[in-house]
Amino acid sequence: MTDNFAEIFDEIALTSKVATYEWISEQAFPTSKEAAQMIYQALLEREAAGDIQIEEGVILPHLEHSALTKTQIWLIRPEEPITEWSERIAQVELIIVVLLAENETLAVKRRLADFMRKLADPDYLDDLKAGNFAEP
Fold it and tell me: pTM value?
């Protein structure tokens, strides 16, 4: 499902952090291996800089990067929970990816902020984990 703000990927075959970050990078830049590699590396660096888990089973890999020309939010539910994501994250059931373009418009930043506030609601996250994707 796609709208101008969020894209939903349900039942995606992802089994590890490496596979997930490769998939995200390739989706962001399907025709540029160099740009995809930059995003892959930036995702790893961002995670190393701070915890991306926002609730048990939910992670929020996010970054702002000059290679990105538009802001994208992806809600990804793996086919099976990803186990042993990292030493700190045991299992991942939902991946909320935020790829923020530099110099984004104020309107998009406001919509993103509204969406991020919704993520503080455990019931909203439970709905997303269950595959009940309401308009973000």
Answer: 0.91
C-alpha closest to that of 6 among 79, 101, 71: 71
92: left (phi over 0), alpha (psi -120 to 50) or beta: beta
Place of tokens 């499902």: 1
Amino acid at 62: H
Dump strand ranges (E) for the chain.
6-12, 53-55, 58-59, 62-65, 72-78, 82-83, 91-92, 94-101
What is the spatial distance between Cα 121 and Cα 83, in angstroms, rounded to a whole number? 24
**Distance separating alpha carbons of residues 105 and 48, to the nearest angstrom:** 28
The string of pLDDT tens digits covering residues 34-76 is 999 999 999 999 999 999 999 999 999 999 999 999 899 999 9
